[in-house]
């Protein structure tokens, strides 16, 4: 059972109120109960509610009142918990559920979703497995959104919001979406592909109440900049527009007119093709912007352009978040100085050409920064500056600038930068750090400095690299992290690692939900430690590690508690996978082959053949029927 | 200036294969397709085996193009592609296409990546073949000349040069043909 945060009007948050009285207060205090009340929040465990039989008392209230109370509960997990309390709660909950999150689009079918939640307004779907981001999954693998949109349309669901990640979206899907839901307000596409700007044109033209169009890192075929022209003049409700990932030209006048007639626009992220003078004009007519993504400015602006830009920026006093900068001349960056102390989110991670010094000069003034995404060109010294300047930092991502390891790179980051950050930024809870070397001592220090990590992702660029000082494995370092960070939910490990690190993870990482393993471990024991120890594990992804059938088959029921398991270039065999598929019919066990030819060309008997890529996931709807020929579902 | 090397087919095939990151290109990082079976030799801790493993990653001494491991480092394709586009632009890996002109005895080859826009390309072609291409209009095509630049795209269709955004053109153009005379009318050109 989960926890819920109820915002209950209390004068004193430190008062330990009995859960029962609180819950009763929740029910009886009337209409203000469910409105956010920022001055205080108190936690009520659902278990407490059950124990007090509150739910039975609550059943005397009309359904609408109960629905109203449920409405205040936002978290998906808590909604799921509520629906398990009793039959009547299940019924009420499903009819008033507005938002549904589906972490794996093949775990359930659209029809069943709609059957259970007919009043759905917001749907989040994820398609391809995470490692698809790194070219490990063939393009045609699956994750098509069309059947979902089709089913929702036919059932006349009042869809208002659709959020997709790693799915295949076609122009036809977008067209259907735009025509089927009169109240459609928000489309968020992350790492999707398969569509063109023609699909965007349909959305622009037909969604009369569109508020949000957010395209993050998608592969979109850019036909023309004319899709922006397709927003009718009557469209004035936009709050968020992000087309940074479009690679082609943009119709600047259409964009400017659109922005000018969107007074509620808070977030605008343009693509590379928006030059500086256009940006200046855009900012001038949208000084209310909170979130801005700029284009590509490799040339230094002349004095006049710079002055105009500066003037426009100064007016944007609400700006809190800045990104884009696929190239940025240093002078351009300085134009943003007037607002840098207001920034809470800064993403300079695409600015490959800019020298670390300029980055540092800018960031040191961003005293309120909470999230920073940068390139390793900032260097250890730069991170030391960040550590001393950005005391509010909660999330840091340092990406590699030299992806092919061509230069003997002195401008990368090492354990020194990481330790500095951990020492200076005590509020840090999420980190993604690409570096060329690490030591156990550093990791132990980091763990001691920042026991509050919930996400810790370390990627040492060279696989199997040991502690560069002691030449030992990094088991102890990661062990220290999992032991100290009791709330750790996501972990990615790298470097030289034996089975021992997995022993530590199994022992200590009690809240761990997602684990990514690459080039690590010695024997099946490693994987077993994790499967046996991490009770909350939902996603496990492993590549190039010597785990085989023994580990895979040891506890088949475990996979029912997880969303998915990915194993590539490991030691599991076809025979092992077949056995698993037999023993666990509620799993889809997919074998992804090198290429189409392999299919089932390999001998049926040759079950000793190692499986190239294995992806398995729990599902209530059995085998999917849209798999390409390179995928075999056992 | 136009580059017209006498390049053999193999070189050019390579050149086009390494094209990355532009819209319309299907495959991403081609060089990553060379897979290294690092995982299999993962028994470790002995210095010799480490060296063996290291040789597939970074080497101490500078060496010719290292083989890449698929999907490593774990950076999103989107991000990789956005850097790669820039690298290509600066390193000039080149994208050579054949150019034929009606009536000319032999073909030429040009590198599309040296141009940033249509105007440059046109001037270069005009210079190369000693002709003049007229003025481009979105609806009517090229006016004022007997010559019309066309190209064959990835789908095998013959298109008028200038209709699509430059980057899209570069990524989808397989060859160029400068048409002349009566054939030209078919493309809806006013003369």
From TrEMBL, chain A:
Record InterPro entries: COI1_F-box, Leu-rich_rpt, Leu-rich_rpt_Cys-con_subtyp, LRR_dom_sf, Transp_inhibit
Location of the Transport inhibitor response domain: 118-164
Places the protein is found: Nucleus
Gene Ontology CC: one annotated term: nucleus
UniProt GO MF annotations: auxin binding
Keywords for this protein: Auxin signaling pathway, Developmental protein, Nucleus, Ubl conjugation pathway
GO biological process: auxin-activated signaling pathway; pollen maturation; SCF-dependent proteasomal ubiquitin-dependent protein catabolic process
Top-level taxon of the source organism: Eukaryota
Involved pathway(s): Protein modification; protein ubiquitination
COI1 F-box domain: residues covered: 61-98
Pfam families with a match to the protein in the record: F-box_5, LRR_6, Transp_inhibit
Name assigned to this protein: F-box domain-containing protein
Organism encoding this protein: Thlaspi arvense
From TrEMBL, chain B:
Biased composition (Basic and acidic residues): 45-57
Residue ranges of every copy of the PB1 domain listed in the record: 94-181
Protein name per the record: Auxin-responsive protein
Primary role: Aux/IAA proteins are short-lived transcriptional factors that function as repressors of early auxin response genes at low auxin concentrations.
Cellular location(s): Nucleus
Taxonomic classification: Eukaryota, Viridiplantae, Streptophyta, Embryophyta, Tracheophyta
Biological process, per Gene Ontology: auxin-activated signaling pathway; regulation of DNA-templated transcription
Family membership noted in the UniProt record: Belongs to the Aux/IAA family.
Gene3D superfamilies the record matches: Phosphatidylinositol 3-kinase Catalytic Subunit, Chain A, domain 1 (3.10.20.90)
Origin: domain of life: Eukaryota
Keywords of this entry: Auxin signaling pathway, Nucleus, Repressor, Transcription, Transcription regulation
PROSITE patterns referenced in this protein's UniProt entry, alphabetically: PB1 (PS51745)
Subunit structure: Homodimers and heterodimers.
InterPro entries membership: AUX/IAA_dom, AUX_IAA, PB1-like
One GO CC term, this protein: nucleus
Region (Disordered) residue spans: 40-67
Primary localization class, coarse: nucleus
Organism: Thlaspi arvense (Field penny-cress)
Keyword Transcription regulation: yes
